[in-house]
Amino acid sequence: MGKRVAVVLAGCGVFDGSEIHEASAVMVHLSREGAQAEFYAPDVDQMHVVDHVKGQPTQEKRNVLVESARIARGDIKDLAKLDVKGLDALIIPGGFGVAKNLSTWATQGKNCVISKVVEDALKAFHAAKKPIGMCCISPVLAAKIFPGCELTVGHDTECEKWPYAKTAETMKELGCKHVNKHVTEVHVDVKNKLVTTSAFMCNAPIHEVYDGIGKMVKEVVRLA
User: By its UniProt entry, which InterPro entries does this protein fall under (predicted)?
Assistant: First the structure.
């Protein structure tokens, strides 16, 4: 039997949900490793809905679970029903939904609140010593919940290639160790079984983002 990996989604679309290319890369690489993805999302309203053509919020209302089901091809469960016992690992793709729907990082930064069902899931996998993979912005969840952990969101010096590098500085303020890594690399926190990679935190060609996520998935499955 292949490993069973919970994949937690945050909606559908980079600016208000899960980053679709990252979620797809996780699915493809899990399949390649012979692992089974099992999708979950919280049954809550999105913080807001963004028109991805205009890049601006609209008055629309959408549900995180319903929108995440688009990526999961309908095969998804309410995150509140996740049972860590039957699962081998957890992966959370990035996208602004992580910072808006799974937490309040987008508006409060290091003073954010993590959604209770998300925090419960992360703590359950951590307590069971089961690996957790995170990419793009999602490592901020671990930074908030597991003080002193080691993570990467890419580089800590802002430039054209690394437009979101200030995130690394904020994570350091939370007491984490940030490790600079290229987009095709991962960092493994052996003690906490956390595997992180920067994905679209970097202005990189999509195949490099895809390759970095592949290494993250491979390492998570290996640790499971």
Answer: Class_I_gatase-like
Q: What is the per-residue pLDDT for 45?
A: 98
State which CATH number among 3.30.70.2740, 3.40.50.12280, 3.40.50.880, 3.40.50.300 fits the domain covering 4-135+185-197+205-223.
Answer: 3.40.50.880
- Tell me, yes or no, if the pTM score tops 0.90: yes
Q: Quick check: 34 pLDDT over 90? A: yes
- So where are the chain's domains? 4-135+185-197+205-223
Name the catalytic one among 136, 149, 176, 202. 136
Place of tokens 């609209």: 58
CA distances from 219 to 122, 164, 222 (A): 18, 25, 5
- 183: nearest Cα among 214, 204, 169, 167: 204
